[in-house]
Protein: Iron-binding zinc finger CDGSH type domain-containing protein
Organism: Triticum aestivum
Amino acid sequence: MATLFCAAAATSCRLAFPLAVPAPAPGLGRGRARRGTVAVRAEAGTGINPAIRKEEAKVVDTVLAGELSKPLTPYCRCWRSGTFPLCDGSHVKHNKATGDNVGPLLVKK
Ligand code: FES
């Protein structure tokens, strides 16, 4: 099962990718379990989500990798996609406009 989660506060968001990082063996330290975690930070008061599902207190999506219809599915990490949580290529325009380097998370079936 693939699980993407965001524990977003106004200034911090973490995305974890357990598909790429296996769970640590019992008894291993917490530091090892955190490998593969990416932290995204926005300026205080601005947030990173400009418009997606702003009526929700927290935008959370769950994906079951075994139920994906395609062998490779891109998920948006730039918060600009018109098909969020799926990537629609809007990150290209965002990157050109801002000099950023964001791209999708590719989930393999
Ligand atoms: Fe957001 Fe592609 S549209 S990562």
